[in-house]
Amino acid sequence: MNGNYLIPANSKKSLLLFGLFRKDELIMFGACLGITLLALTTLPISNTWVALIALAPALIAGFLVMPVPNYHNILTVITGAYQFYTNNQKYKWKGWCFLDGEKKESIHK
After folding, report:
1. Tell me: the pLDDT tens digits for 50-100?
2. Measured between alpha carbons, how far is 33 from 40 in angstroms, rounded to an integer?
3. Which SS3 state, helix, strand or coil, does residue 92 take?
């Protein structure tokens, strides 16, 4: 193969549970599902708004861990956007130039 390496596209899937989820995402989804079940058993579900409030934790968590093309899931998209907008946006030049923007005194004067 002339020193080239072939990496399969799904090599990261083996690190995920069920090929889709990280451990903390499953814990979050399970906790929200438990809260939803508790709310469904304790709240009177005679009104549509009360039913939506009771189902909200599971619906929100399900939306966050839903897989998205080109990303892991919605939660990683939101986390990446948050980190991009809250971290330092000043990038230091470290290019291909030999001197990296610094002037050196010439020895030939």
Report:
1. 999 999 999 999 888 888 777 778 888 888 899 989 987 776 666 666 555
2. 10
3. coil
CB neighbours of 64 closer than 8 A, spacing ≥ 6?
Answer: 25, 28, 73, 74, 75, 78
Residue 57 CA to residue 71 CA, distance in Å, equals 23
Distance CA 20, CA 63 (A): 14
Contact 75, 62 (CB under 8 A): no
Of 15, 14, 18, 28, nearest to 78 by C-alpha is 28
User: Do 41 and 51 form a contact (C-beta atoms < 8 A)?
Assistant: no
